[in-house]
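Reading group handout, session on sequence-to-structure problems. Before we discuss, look at one worked example. The prompt was deliberately terse, the way you'd type it at a terminal:

> structure Hemoglobin

The input record follows.
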Amino acid sequence: MSEPETTTIYEAIGGAETVARLTQRFYALMDTLPEAKNCRAIHPQDLSGSEAKFRDYLTGYFGGPPVYVEKHGHPRLKMRHMPAPIGADERDEWLLCFRLALEETVPDVRLRGIIMPPVEKLAYHMQNKG
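And the output record:
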């Protein structure tokens, strides 16, 4: 009897190409949506470095190659984000951008339903101010 094949989220959504489109769209939304102004304000003027790191992080997070860890070591997300004041507004704006980017780049509603709950939990975990 053979083992059942498993598919990662990374593979299911389309791999590197989809993760790249997702992160690109995420930062484009953050950079342009008035509803994301507080979240945008805590990011560097040039978002290219943030986008590259987020793409690398999501690649591993979704079950693809551990690109972020290979380049930067353990993510230590809470520690790395401590300098940025992340309150409820920034968290919710970040989630808005992520949700919209995900809807635009991952057409499968079922996959989006699998992806969003842990991302929401992570966003709440990153909040570091009242």
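Points for discussion. First: The chain has eight helices and no strands. Second: The mean pLDDT is 95.
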